[in-house]
Amino acid sequence: MISWAATGWQEEDGIWRYYSSDGEPVTEAWKKSGDHWFWLDGDGEMLTDSLVEDDEDYYYVNESGAMVKNEWRELDNTDDSDDAADTCWYYLGPNGKAYKAASSGKTTFKTINGKKYAFDEEARMLYGWVDEESGRVTDEDAWRTSVYYLGANGDGAMRSNQWERLEADDDENEDDAFDGYYWFWFGANGKKAADSTKTINGKKYKFTENGNAIFNFYSIASTATASGSDMYFNSPEQCWRADGWFKSVPDQNIDPEGYDDGDEYWYYAQKNGELVKSQIKKINGQYYGFDEYGKMLHGLYKLSVNDRDIQSYEEIESETDLPEEDEAWQVYYFGDTPKEGAMKTGTTRLDVDGEEYTYEFKKSGSDRGAGYDGIHDGSIYIKGRLLKADRDAKLEKVSYAGEEYLVNTSGKIQKKKTNVKDADDKYYCTDSNGIVTYEGSEKKGEED
After folding, report:
1. I want to staple 137 with a disulfide (CB 3.0 to 4.6 A). Which of 78, 146, 187, 407 is the partner?
2. pTM, whole model, 2 decimals?
3. 320 three-class SS
4. CA separation for the pair 389, 422 (Å, rounded)
5. Quick count: other Cβ atoms within 10 Å of Cβ 108?
6. Torsions phi, psi of 257, nearest 5?
7. What contacts 201, CB < 8 A, 6 or more positions away?
């Protein structure tokens, strides 16, 4: 009689093998049983609960030895590098093959349950910062050199059209507001925005070549055809480009002196993001002044102005700061009504170092807001400051343009006056211009 060797699946001492028609055990191959495929290792034993590498592809067989399909599996990580996690994730596709990097080596993504994931060449799910060659980047400059961010291990989903606040080691950033984190924007393709300006949800943002969103002040270098300008991108939690009014402590690099003071100032950003600087500008019906750094002027100032451009300025804080009639300054006042910093026109009373003065500022014209200088409407002004007699003096002699004029407590020039008397019983006579022609303790004509 002929003895036939067993073929197919055979269990021996609890281990399954598969024998070919010649009676030899099958090794390094897949064999099917029912609806499932099973892997036979180099010894011909059916493998269970293991990752299988077959012809440069990866599979996973479960506790029963069946090939797993359409499932995530968390397995021990065979990567023994210092920055590798203890476990890693695989996704076994519909044919059982684990998704892995494309043969080109470029980072590509697979959509799984509505989210996109990337894998390395050994089918491990990528996470954290990832470059364009399917590699995780784990050094301290990962935020600078990487392209994608895929969350923590166990997450791995591609960031798409969303913000992420991520830790960044940046010794170059000395801004007090920097807390070791930056905001990054990842577009529809998962790549971080870098070296660009983008409109996101209606707001403007600027990103460095490393991809982090700029915050606080940003200076645009001057060119051969245009001067430098500054922008402001709000706090680290917001980062959007300022449009309109905002308040901030000055930038340490742009305005060191203002920064050292530590006070907040108002600034105004135009539609293109650039700060208004060194000019008087009309904003929402009011005029405001700004210094060379963009800080809004607030108070009484002497300015050198050319067609609304402020060429130089000094704040008037004491009587010694008041300009004389022969100085080239113009005086403006940026007060508190109807808005803080709004340029004043018309008549106003101002306190300068404890002394009250009456000022008259022009209401119209190219030099609107500048104080009247000279004789205007029957009164004398020195850079907007009205020359008038003390209230107790009734009349007083003032000097202007090399002449002496007689004025009353309202500042009106006393013209064609004969023997008018002040509070000290001194008599004055004036000509048709109000220039004093006589003063004395006796009436003119009775002094002899």
Report:
1. 146
2. 0.78
3. helix
4. 10
5. 14
6. -65, -45
7. none
pLDDT over 90 at 235, yes or no: no
Nearest to 369 by CA among 412, 327, 335, 410: 335
Distance CA 198, CA 81 (A): 38
| CA pseudo-torsion sign 230, 234, 236, 239 | negative
Is pLDDT of 4 > 90?
no
Q: CA 162, CA 200: separation in Å to the nearest integer?
A: 10
Beta bridge partners of 375: 380
Task: Using only the alpha carbons of the chain, give its radius of gyration.
Answer: 42
Residue 222: the pLDDT is 52
Mean pLDDT for 373-397 is 97
- Distance between CA atoms of residues 265 and 245, nearest Å: 10
Residue type for position 379: S
In angstroms, the first-to-last Cα distance of the chain is 173
Edge to edge, the sheet with strand 379-382 lists 346-352, 355-361, 385-386, 379-382, 374-376
CA atoms of 446 and 436, how far apart (whole Å)? 18
What are phi and psi for residue 368, nearest 5 degrees?
-50, 135
Closest alpha carbon to 241 in 265, 222, 261, 267: 267
What angle (nearest 5°) sits at the alpha carbon of residue 282, between those of residues 278 and 285? 155
* Ramachandran angles phi, psi of 213, nearest 5°: -70, 135
Give start and end residues of each alpha helix (H) in 241-280. Answer: 256-261
pLDDT tens digit sequence for 303-332: 999 999 999 999 999 999 999 999 999 999
Query: Is residue 177's pLDDT more than 90?
Result: no
CB atoms within 10 A of CB 211: 25
Cα–Cα distance measured from residue 268 to residue 277, given in angstroms and rounded to the nearest whole number: 9
Report the distance separating Cα 200 and Cα 192, nearest Å.
Answer: 13
Helix (H, G, I), strand (E, B) or coil at 362: coil
Across 307-400, the runs of DSSP E, i.e. the strands, are 309-315, 330-334, 346-352, 355-361, 374-376, 379-382, 385-386, 395-400
- In the chain, the amino acid numbered 327 is E
Q: Is 115 helix (H, G, I), strand (E, B) or coil?
A: strand
Q: Tally Cβ neighbours within 10 Å of residue 347.
A: 10
Q: Which residue from 176, 184, 241 is spatially nearest to 213, judged by alpha carbons? A: 184
Using one digit for the tens of pLDDT, what is the confidence trace for 343-365? 999 999 999 999 999 999 999 99
Q: Can you state the percent helix, strand and coil of the chain, rounding each to 5? A: 5, 40, 55
Which token pair is 160?
Answer: 């798409």
